[in-house]
Amino acid sequence: MSTSANGSWRIFRGDGVARPVSMPPAPPWRRFRAQGQAAAPPPYLVAREHADVVNAALHLRRPLLVTGPAGTGKSSLARAVAHELSLGELLRWPVNSRSSVQEALYQYDAIGRLRETTLSRDRGETEPTIGSFVRLGPLGTALAPHDTPRALLVDEMDKGDVDLPNDLLTVFEEGVFEIPELARLPEEMADVDVLTADHRGSVTVHQGRVECVEFPVVVITSNGERDFPPAFLRRCIRLDLPIPDEERLRAIVAAHLGPEILPEVDDLLQAFLRRRAPGELATDQLLNAVFLRTNDVDLDADGLLDAVLHQLTGTV
């Protein structure tokens, strides 16, 4: 009897009884850090014509504006570029309606500095430096001088304020910004070490000016919910990722979970393609269903397939 038939795949039983369990292996795309190191991202497949657009942005040192429906791999593209080019940890700026360019560049904790300075004086200790209270944001860290460019994901730009794209024009065009709190310091304090967004060190800022040596690899994603100003679009290289067809879906499944499983999951692929017609489904939903099938989970039981392949649009 298979594990799906006798129900042994169920870890949580919902009977209120506490019991020791062994967690099953996680899907490759849901494995995180191991021994303090960032896990490599799962394989990412992109068509040659789309890879050529990415290369054009790299050669021109321009931001790459990636559009397309949910689930087409816009954010994953940024991780894939950072991984393939060995650009280090991907810096991520998730945009929302309250996001501002200033906070993406840096944050200054004036209250924390005042408190720590007062405490140090009361204890007769050396006052902390101002750099201990300045942290570059993801955009600021990307623009800081590095030997090789950093990779920055500006995720879901269309969720931001309507003025946000225009606010980015000067920064993207000139690759420089100023921290006024540091620019006002006397000449003998011209060089200040400030913290970075990745929490892994610091960079030295001279006279409050942060200027990149190599323009960062910037990937901006958008779900197409709003149009951007022409001046902003002119400074970007645009890439529209289409919904993957059946052939590409098979290639994606094979890259993540092995080509040998394709014959076993053809029914899931066909179900995915049928359900995708009336509503949007993301590719990772198909991967979730395939992974469960390969771990002997009975996807036909109690509407589990409906839970995994639920539409992303419409009422909830």
UniProtKB/TrEMBL annotation:
Residue ranges constituting the AAA+ ATPase domain according to the UniProt record: 60-247
Signal sequence bounds: none
UniProt xrefs under CDD domains: AAA (cd00009)
InterPro entries listed in its UniProt record: AAA+_ATPase, ATPase_dyneun-rel_AAA, P-loop_NTPase
GO molecular function: ATP binding; ATP hydrolysis activity
Domain of life: Bacteria
Protein name listed in UniProt: ATPase AAA
